[in-house]
Amino acid sequence: MRSERLLHSEDYRTTIAKRCRSDDQLFTVFAARRPTGGARLGITVSRRVSTKAVRRNRLKRRVRESFRYHKQPLAGLDLVVIARQEANETERLQVDRSLFGHWIRVREKCGK
């Protein structure tokens, strides 16, 4: 849904500038609290991750799907997910586990 996405580069910059983050081998997730509304998501998958657009888009779909399942506890946060090259070469289950761990850490660190 459009209201659940970070749409402008200023939104990305603001979220990253807050420096509330979670890192692992597959992703870096930045988070920033927002005063009202549900969680919003921005995803960055560069060509360094994969030169194939199909693979980059598949990875973005996985991130969006994980976010959709876990967005309720993340309400009130803006999130930026930056994929690393290892995420492209990793099985789906590991990607899901990694993202789930990020959602928990971000909620604890940056949430309410």
UniProtKB/TrEMBL annotation:
Its EC number is 3.1.26.5. GO terms for cellular component: ribonuclease P complex. GO terms for molecular function: 3'-tRNA processing endoribonuclease activity; ribonuclease P activity; tRNA binding. It holds the Pfam family Ribonuclease_P. InterPro entries: Ribosomal_Su5_D2-typ_SF, Ribsml_uS5_D2-typ_fold_subgr, RNase_P, RNase_P_CS. Keywords: Endonuclease, Hydrolase, Nuclease, RNA-binding, tRNA processing. RNaseP catalyzes the removal of the 5'-leader sequence from pre-tRNA to produce the mature 5'-terminus. It can also cleave other RNA substrates such as 4.5S RNA. The protein component plays an auxiliary but essential role in vivo by binding to the 5'-leader sequence and broadening the substrate specificity of the ribozyme. HAMAP family: RNase_P. This is Ribonuclease P protein component. It comes from hydrothermal vent metagenome.
